[in-house]
Amino acid sequence: MKFSTLQQLIDFCREEQVSIGQLMLNEQAKETGKSQEETFRMMADYYNIMKEAVRRGIEEPVPSRSGLTGGDAGRVHQYMDSGLSSLGEEACRALAYALSVSEVNASMGRIVATPTAGSCGIIPGVFVSSQQRFGWDDEQLVMGLFAAGAIGYVIANNSFISGAEGGCQAEVGSAIGMAAGALTEMRGGTPEQAVHAVGLALKNSLGLICDPVGGLVEIPCIVRNGFGAVTALAAADMALAGVRSVIPSDEVIGVMLEVGAAMPAKHRETAQGGLAQTPTGKRIMKNLYGNRKRKQQKEEEHSNDNNN
Between 36-59 and 122-134, two packed helices, what is the crossing angle to 10 degrees? Predict the structure, then answer.
């Protein structure tokens, strides 16, 4: 890629008079040696997978393999239909859709890791709900994915996208920034506004730890995806309204690197701190892995009996 910072991304968009999404499509095609048409079709396939995960989590019960989570997306969607949501229908739908994809992930269903499996619900939640709201065709959303990819590329190469390296700020935070910037562009914002949306979104996620209960991408990961989708909508709205990230977005990414590097190991996806080590978190872990151990022992005893 010919850009390595968000400011360079803006500069190249100005120079070539293209959107962030179009610039990324051009660069991706050059880097892979594929035609732009083929590169676009591949991204369109990814978007179809996202839409199917949204549908499945809302319309079908998708309990996780552990039994700890599942069904919350449907509950939020039903609540949205009641007209009682404090968020309003549009934001509540994005919330429900983000939960949906995350629950599909926890059930070992098919998702697109954007940028990781732990944050896979945020971009689909924002994109699919916005498509339904504004009547966009798939082509616009696919170009939005290229824009999100460009933003994610910069973050990944200047900071973290992995919870094990930088905490949940790196996973959920990056996804929020990617979704916010892409949504800003899809709604007619300039590359500058899109980049401000990234900075606004990331600043609100700095310091977020990764503390999965039982070491599973379920608690609190799934609900953080739901909150993340709503935050992305807010960041896009602020940027489109003219709110700027006073600290340049590239500098915010640098701060995320600094904070993640300083974060204790117990708060970086090890399940050794945070919510994972609360009394309830410990009890869940004991029940979960204690049951697995007992099941394994029974299976071994059964196997030995058969051999004898």
Answer: 90
